[in-house]
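Reading a protein record of the kind used here takes little practice once its layout is understood. The reader may check this reading against the record printed directly beneath this paragraph.
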Amino acid sequence: MSRICVYVGSSFGASPEYAAVAAAFGRACANRGIGIVYGGGSVGLMGALADSALSAGGAVIGVIPRPMMAEGRAHHGLTDLITVETMHERKHRMSQLADAFVALPGGIGTLEEIIEVFTWLQLGLHLKPVGLLNACGFYDLLLEFLAHMRAEQFLTSEHHSMLAVSTDAESLLDQISATKHVHVPKPVCHTTTNGVFQI
């Protein structure tokens, strides 16, 4: 594994612990020689992640849409900064560059991005590891909801178990490094004429 795509907030959040978590993850990646691909921002937890990885000698690639460049959000001290036209291009390019995906604390953008790549894994569009760094219990409610989806049979146990979760950066990196996914086809459900569901 040479690069991890990291989704993380562009704000600092309510607790200073979140910035410490982002910085610790950046250092952990750099210490293992793992490059970071992220959204290219200099603000909030995005900046804390990038700065800590760079300070520890790590490689950091940012991918940012031009409108965000114009708003002054870009980090100009990165190993490489790639500009694209749209958010869709940004996500596609980040996924191409990475061997795994991890979400740190963040907002609705972070949530949307990690759920999207988890969906792609479920569908077999990629077989790269996907993980949550559940520091400070940030993702507890999301994990409860995913368990609810599994219980209600909208998410299979096999697909649910593909999501790596840890409260610790080093442990999460260990999990992801050891992960070798194989495609598990999503069940196809049909209704019969009498209204009974069959798989």
Summary: The chain is about 45% helix and 20% strand. Strands lie at 3-7, 35-38, 60-65, 80-84, 100-103, 130-133, 163-166, 190-191, 197-198.
